[in-house]
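Researcher: Here's a chain I'd like modeled. Treat it as a single chain, no partners, no ligands.
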Amino acid sequence: MRIISRLIFRELLGYFLLALLVFTFVLFLGRIFQLTELVVNKGVPFLVILRLLLVISPSFFLVTIPMALLLATVMTFSRMSADSEIIAMKATGISLYRQLAPVLLLSVLSYGASNYLIFYAMPWSERSFMELRLELANSQAASISVKARVFNDDFDGLVLYVHEMPSTERVMRGILISDNRSQENPQTIVAEEGVLIPDPETSRITLRLRAGAIHRPVPQEEKYQVINFETYDLSLEARDLLGDAGKLERVGKNLSLYEIQEKLKQYGPEDRRYNGLLVEYYKKFSIPFATLILGFLGAPLGIKNTRSGKSGSFALSLFIIMFYYVFLTLGEGLGERAVVPIATALWFPNMVLGAIAIYAVTKVGRETPFKTFNWIGERLETVWESFCDRLRARGLLWTEEENP
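Model: Modeled as a single isolated chain. Structure tokens:
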């Protein structure tokens, strides 16, 4: 039995690591273009990009670990069932419940990893991200440059045009500025000369203008105001280099459990942020627990999904994951709006999948007829194969014969 358990666990672990690598890479692909833009257009060093990937990786692994666990379990038991190994072990007196011992071990390990990510890695990710953002802001403030005869929009709410900027000097000549940082009081500034003075310590930039005028409409008084100046300092803030590429999840997710508890005491139920924080509090417990359920759900899915093959197993796993995260997202929204109790909303997907897992394992363990999983797997396999055929027709996917 120990040899069999080790063999099952080894196969489970192989599928798990492969699926974890693939799913994580797919999620990282969504950031590739944004990160490439930072390197090419913003001059961000490649080592900083690697640090950014490391910082945001905990949020990715929190999603891919349950996905990889489910897929590994489904594919392992689907293969074992197709090769009649399940029947052979039952014939020697090894029940399905004893065969699930390696699944329990991998599920517990995944549960521990998910707990570590959500309780420790995510708060570390938030702190590291803020430090990285400050570092990039400082470097940007120190190396900001303006191109002549180009409308520069590197500053929030402001467009800067410079007619002439000698390469040997830092002084800009013939300056035109459209300042829309205040929507109620937009203004246009012209000046003969100006110079940028960066302050890396505060991540701010001062544009010191000389011999110019501020043009400002006053709609309330139906007047047009012109203010001449000899020297005028305009405080600017450069746009965040990270942009959308560096955004983490909303406030609360990256806080530690202690910090969330303190903020809940600080805000109180009447504060609009209270429900959002309470949602994140319950998610820290419900999301890791899902790995235990998905691991055991995968075994009966794989055994009863033998005929649909690996493609059907993959499609069925994706369907279950989509079901889980759709209902988890729906529960977050309903919980934040206090439509349903937050604990119920966040634990509902776990309760549904847990009930299905218990029913399915019991059904398969007793070897009673259960055709539902086969039917679902076959339907999903049909959809998946149709999708692959469309990709092949467009030349986006090779067949085995065409693969060079």
